[in-house]
Fold each of these.
Amino acid sequence: MSRRVHGVGRFLCGAMLNLAAVGGIICLVLVGLAFVFDTTLIMFKTGSMSPTIPAGSLSLVREIPATEIKVGDVVTVERPAALPITHRVTSVADGSTSTERIITMKGDANEAEDPFPYAVNTVRTVLASVPNLAYGVVWLSNPWVMAVLTLGASALVTWAFWPRDPSDLGAYEQEALLPLPEPPGNGSQSGLTLLIAPLAFGLALASPTPAVTEDVITSGHLKMISIGDQAAMARLAPGEPVQWQVGVSAAESEPGEVRIQLRGDGNAGLGLNAIIRSCDRRWVEGDCEGEADQVHSPGPIAVDGTKRQLTAMSVAEERWLLFDLWLPRNNAAERTEKSVRLQVHATGSGDDVTASPGPIDSLAATGANPLLPLLAAALSIGFGLALAGFAKQWRKRNR
């Protein structure tokens, strides 16, 4: 019985080692293809492209010149001071130059086309997509999950290179209890192959992943829904916009009005800019399928602590505000201890409710490094090799 259990244990260890090695090779191949063919991965947080590409899908995209765009292509377009949008091309026209094209787009699940055409020189075309895979990427990007994977990689490296003396093995361990490959001896090629696994997984996970949360705030007759990536807003990179959406509704049978105001406080030197748009229904990937208007022109947000009215609505309506927040690319403001805090206030029906995305700040030089997963993987390899090397030297000294 003990012989069989021991054999199964050795088989499982070897299988895990080979699985990690194969996964590492696949990741390295994908990273290499990304550099050679200029491909990247994008995640779909909403269902505007359903059922073709449902929410939670992970898609592979490649940059192409605008001259190659065809009607029916699903492409990602960069937008100034706003997040990129991925929809299907409905028309293509010549632009002001030989390389520019004017395109219109529409989400498969949307009733109407996007409100404005896009003038583009390059776009990213969707090559393939896998439903629900984005949820797995988000899960893998969780710091706790990454910590467990890093520790597991360290344990596998240690086991793969742990010194083994064949003379110490019992005769039963030399028998082929299972018709499957044996695990490595003292640093075989399988062990060497394992070295690429944690490094490759670190490369694959090196890009930060959005973590959009949805918070509901209620007060009497009023309700607010705040949707955004608080971590991304806390470390804005110059020129890279982040979106925040706030929905306001009222539960009131009597006629009345709800006023929606914005208050900003904090570090004016941060240079926070915004475009604020209003819609009578929830925004989907930056699109309003109802009536939309702009309530704050592109420009700096006042942070003097004064409430400024954005819009108003009747208690029978609902209003969704979409904030595109960004810092100027040439932002060189002196950093202080204060960040910026925005608050949306809704007042009406005798109630007042407030929503805030939390502190907004710029990405510090000492902030989160996207290469941190790669560094963790390299450290796990180093730790495993050091531990195995120490064991080897200790065994030599005690012979």
Note: The mean pLDDT is 75.
Amino acid sequence: MVKPRLKRHGKKQRTYRIVAIDTQSRREGKCIEEVGFYNPRKEQTQLDLSTIAALLRQGAQSTATVRDILKRAKVPEQIGLNL
């Protein structure tokens, strides 16, 4: 099963990439696809809406943290899905 979840990134690992990754892979393992970026210090979020919508329509279950990030960015209303 594929899940959108956070992967640490950066020199001091203070930023995150939102990636589509197999549930049995480790967090820093090889990802299937990168679908966004999240910086909690500056509250910056960059998302690829079409890819995220395709993943969620295919049955991917996002983690709680990614779900909260998507809700703050109002993604469910834009793509017409319930999270």
Note: The chain is about 30% helix and 35% strand.
Amino acid sequence: MNSTEELQSKINNAKSLDFGTIITETIEMFKQVWTKGLLVVLLIAISAVCISVLFTVIGLVPKTDASIFTDGITWETFTSFYSLNAIYSIPQTIIVSALTLAFVGAFYRICYQMVTEKNEEDDYFYFFKNGYFTKVLMLAIIYTAIATVAQLLFFIPYIYAFVPLSYFAVVLADNPQLSEMDIVKVSFALGNKKWLISFGTMFIAGILGMLGIIACFIGVFVTISIVYLPAFLIYKEVVGFDNVSEIDQIGME
């Protein structure tokens, strides 16, 4: 297990990464884990739909007044509608974020087991057990708070914050012993250090993931899990895993 200081030291001293290599490894790894990724995406989608239905039934669906657009869309009406929607969605966003972090964290553990050649049973509900879900819920609250503030500041701050937030699940998966704030600190340290290559590879992976739409839209459930892999591979190259061979630990120039 790594301490926060060890993780931050590795991040600060990380070698530069090659964009093309990360994309290539993302595609190759996706070929190996797409079935596992499909199951995770389905679990997240089903959970999100169930939460949405539940909030609708109990009357907690975000209510925003679309009538403000009666006289046309202006910058003022748009920002008002956008801000109110982001604020009113907070309770639902926290729950969906918690479930997403738990499932994606479990997916990263499965990827980790594959990379380190550990013969363990795939456990998609790992972070719902072992006393971890309270930590996941706190991370979801922090995630939602940061994302909401970034959304209220509009496009550029949200795009910037998206990268560090994307590392929450992978840092949690490899270091579940860390406190919530330490996971946040490490995620932002890694996201800031490798922001450009993270954003670039995630953007390309997102485009590749959306190719599933070609297959009557439903195919996107099969392909979209590729978007989770750049964060995992960048973390692997920068921080490494305790049981990965020395060759795998070598950073790319």
Note: The mean pLDDT is 86.
Amino acid sequence: MKAKKKRLLGRPPSSEQKQPTSKTILQAASHLFLANGYQEVSVDDIARKCNVTKATVYYYYNSKAELFTETMVQIMYRIREQMQVMLLEEIPLRTRLFNVTKAHLKATVDIDLDGFMRETKSTLSTEQVKQMQEAEENMYNAIEKSFIDAIAIGEISEINPKFATQTYVSLLKVGNYRNADNEAIFPSIEETAEHIINFFWNGLFHKS
């Protein structure tokens, strides 16, 4: 009689998996990290959230730091994909940027990427911090390419596209500002996006 293959410690039986377990863990971790911050979430919390054992979490992710890094990288990857779709539309660049600004503010209203980076700087490895920084940079590559393309066809004035990108990104971060009472600068995302684009466009690309 053929011996039954032994299952690795922590790995759930394949019959119990409705979707990849690693994805289930990542989704649970993402929800908890965004809601509570890195320090307040434990591997036990994540295991309970997705109804698996702690050993199962460690089967797929070696540490909480590794899981957090992958969570942030995946969030930034999804934001980048959404940006890219909007930036490829055949409409004026200013309109595309306005649409991206609104979508980005909605997507990041509860995500303080800079805050997460500061909170975890002393906890993550140098390589993990680098992974997150590269993911953030890649998130904005599509914007830089849009500036390059717009310059090439004369839609905007000649300007260093990386400088334009980083200036725009800085304004996006201002758009997520909240005071001690959790109040934004403007009452709506639509109005915030309009102010950001007006300031950015007139300041950088205004033609006299």
Note: The CA atoms of residues 9 and 135 lie 32 Å apart.
